[in-house]
Design a protein that fits this description.
There is one protein chain. By secondary structure, the protein is an alpha/beta fold. It contains 14 helices and 11 strands. The strands form 3 sheets. A 7-stranded mixed beta sheet has the order 5-2-1-6-7-11-10, sandwiched between helices. A two-stranded antiparallel ribbon has the order 3-4. A two-stranded parallel sheet has the order 8-9. Strand 8, helix 5 and strand 9 form a beta-alpha-beta unit. The longest helix has 21 residues.
C-alpha cells in the first residue's frame, strides 16, 4: 500500500492551512472508500505529519495535532504541502527541519504537491529550481522576487513536472486533489470524488480570477513612473518607443529594465491595464463589448477579444455573463 503524507507546518500558518489539510484528508479518504466499495484494497495509507506535537491556526482558535512526527517517517510516496502565510521568510525559518525532510524524501522517490502558497516551502527546498510553478496570483510578485529562477505560471491552475505538482490559490487546491486522485487511482474514482465533494472537474486555468495591480515593490523609479503613466493614459494610443523617449531611456534598455522590475514587457503591462479596466466595466455596467473595447483604447474587435482571452482565459462576452447577472 502506498503512503500519502499531509504536512502540518509548525509556524506562520495561514487561515487556509487547515482547510488544505482537512480537505486533502477527506478527498483521499473518499477515494479509498470508493475502492473498498468496489471490493478493492485502499490505495493509500493517509497520515498527517509535522515537526511539532501540535500547531495552531486562525489566531489560536484551532489546534491541530499531527498523527506522526516527520522524524518517524522514513519512506512515503506522496507529500502534500498546505498553504502557509504570505510572510514566508518567517515561515521558512520555523520549518527548516520539514524542508530538509522534504528534499530527502523526493530524492528517495516520493512525489510532492504544493497547495497555493505551500509553493514557498517547496521552492525553498530547491526542488522547483528552473521548473514550472503555479501559485495564487496575489502572491506571484513576492514569489518571483524570492525565487527568480523558477518559471512561474500564474495562469495555470496546476503544473505537473517530474513528480512535482503545484496549483493556484484559494480553494483551487481541491482541483489539484482531484488531479492527483485521477493520476494515482483512475478517472472513475476522480469523477466519484468530484460528485461527492461537489468539485468542478478538469479546471485548467485561474486566469479569470486574477486581479492585475502591477508589481511596484521594485526600486526602479523610472519604471515606476512609466507604470503610472501607462495606468493614467491607457485609453490613449501609446507606443513603447515614445514611452522610452519620454523617460529619456534607450528603447532596449527601457524594455530590459521594465521586464526586470515588473515581470512584464511594457506592451504586456499596457495590455493588462487595459483588460483589467475592461473586466471592471463588464462586472459593473451594462455596456456592450464594443463600448467597453473603445473605452479601453482598442478599435479592432478581433484584437481585443484575442488579448482578453489570452489574459483571462475567457471571451469578453463569457466574462460579462459570468460576473454580471444584470447584463445577461
Amino acid at each position: 500500500m502506498k503512503h500519502v503524507t499531509i504536512l502540518v507546518p509548525d509556524v506562520q500558518t495561514a487561515n487556509s492551512t487547515i482547510a488544505c489539510i482537512v480537505g486533502a484528508y477527506q478527498v483521499f479518504t473518499g477515494a479509498n472508500e470508493y475502492r473498498q466499495k468496489q471490493g478493492k484494497e485502499p490505495l493509500f495509507t493517509i497520515e498527517t505529519a509535522g515537526v511539532a506535537d501540535e500547531s495552531t491556526f486562525i489566531g489560536g482558535l484551532l489546534t491541530f495535532k499531527p498523527q506522526v512526527n516527520i522524524a518517524s517517517l522514513q519512506k512515503t510516496d506522496l507529500i502534500l504541502i498546505p498553504s502557509i502565510t504570505p510572510a514566508f521568510e518567517q515561515a521558512m525559518h520555523g520549518n527548516r527541519l520539514l524542508i530538509e525532510w522534504l528534499r530527502q524524501q523526493y530524492k528517495n522517490g516520493a512525489e510532492v504537491a504544493s497547495m497555493c502558497t505551500g509553493a514557498f516551502i517547496l521552492a525553498s527546498s530547491g526542488l522547483l529550481e528552473k521548473r514550472s510553478c503555479s501559485i495564487h496570483w496575489n502572491s506571484a510578485n513576492h514569489f518571483r522576487a524570492l525565487f527568480p529562477n523558477i518559471q512561474l505560471k500564474t495562469e495555470k491552475l496546476i503544473t505537473d513536472e517530474r513528480g512535482i505538482y503545484t496549483n493556484g490559490g484559494g480553494y483551487s487546491f481541491l482541483n489539484l486533489l482531484l488531479y492527483l486522485v485521477e493520476k494515482y487511482y483512475d478517472r472513475e474514482t476522480a469523477i466519484y470524488c468530484s460528485k461527492i465533494f461537489q468539485i468542478e472537474l478538469d479546471r485548467q486555468t485561474q486566469s479569470a480570477f486574477a486581479i492585475f495591480t502591477g508589481q511596484k515593490t521594485h526600486g526602479d523609479d523610472v519604471v515606476k513612473n512609466a507604470q503610472q503613466y501607462l495606468e493614467d493614459h491607457f485609453c490613449e494610443k501609446i507606443s513603447v518607443e515614445d514611452l522610452s523617449k519620454r523617460f529619456a531611456v534607450g528603447r532596449r534598455n527601457f524594455d530590459r529594465r521594465f521586464v526586470k522590475a515588473t515581470g512584464n514587457t511594457p506592451l504586456e503591462y499596457l495590455q493588462r491595464v487595459k483588460i483589467e479596466s475592461a473586466k471592471k466595466a463588464f462586472e459593473t455596467t451594462r455596456k456592450t463589448v464594443n463600448e467597453v473595447m473603445y473605452e479601453v483604447g482598442y478599435s479592432d474587435v478581433k484584437a481585443f477579444r484575442e488579448v482578453f482571452r489570452k489574459i483571462t482565459g475567457m471571451s469578453p462576452l463569457e466574462y460579462r455573463n459570468r460576473y454580471n447577472k444584470e447584463a445577461v
